[in-house]
Design brief:
Blueprint (H helix, E strand, L loop, with lengths): L1 H27 L5 H18 L4 H17 L2 H9 L4 H13 L1 H5 L6 H20 L3 H46 L4 H10 L2 H5 L1
Helix pairs in contact: 1-2, 2-3, 2-4, 2-5, 3-5, 4-7, 5-8, 7-8
Subunit structure: Constitutively interacts with CASP4; required for the localization of procaspase 4 to the ER.
Pfam families: TMEM214
Family: Belongs to the TMEM214 family.
Length: 203
């Protein structure tokens, strides 16, 4: 028991020591650059470990850092997916934070597609674990994770619906303006619909 607590404290201290330096380097880097990607992946590795240490203040800070890494580098989603099963508690904390702060956090992402892909992977892993896992504590964590994944997937679907509606409205306005001008031939109208991928939007 003493060894576990000692190792936990050491891991926490290592994260607290290295995190400010890594983040300072990351903030000084150019978004999307190779150096930035490498740094965010390094930070994510430390932050995931720290978030699962069971220290409330550290978990809150680490989960904020993890989400920051995800917004800065979409490749971090794949890294998070790889770390998921071995760091379940940390992932639950991050998922819970994303649910609680969805309006604030969702707008920080350049694209939400990596999140959707990652959540789909998490759900498959959760479903498999829920069907086979016998440990009560782990089962509770997987159920919690699955609940948060379902909420986030629902919100992503609603976001997609809103964006789709806005695009459809834009197409309708463009077509309406063209028809009103009475200068558009049927071939021009067809080209406009193809350019907007209108038929796929309706499906």
């Amino acid at each position: 028991m003493w060894c576990f607590e000692s190792c936990s404290v050491q891991a926490t201290e290592r994260f607290e020591a290295v995190y400010p330096t890594l983040k300072e380097i990351a903030l000084a880097g150019s978004p999307g650059s190779k150096g930035m990607k490498q740094t965010t992946q390094q930070i994510l590795q430390f932050a995931v470990k720290a978030a699962g240490e069971g220290v409330a203040d550290l978990s809150r800070e680490a989960s904020t850092v993890i989400i920051w890494c995800l917004t800065q580098n979409p490749d971090c989603y794949k890294q998070w997916d790889d770390l998921y099963l071995d760091n379940l508690e940390a992932s639950v904390i991050v998922l819970r934070k994303l649910v609680a702060e969805w309006q604030e956090q969702s707008v920080k992402h350049f694209t939400l597609e990596p999140l959707k892909v990652t959540l789909t992977s998490f759900k498959h892993k959760n479903e498999k674990a829920l069907a086979t896992e016998e440990d009560a504590t782990l089962l509770a964590s997987f159920k919690d994770a699955q609940k948060h994944c379902n909420v986030l997937m629902g919100r992503l679907s609603r976001n997609h619906g809103c964006m789709k509606g806005m695009v459809l409205m834009s197409v309708a306005l463009a077509v309406g303006a063209a028809v009103m001008s009475q200068n558009m031939h049927s071939s021009d109208l067809k080209k406009l619909l193809v350019d907007f991928d209108f038929l796929n939007l309706l499906s």
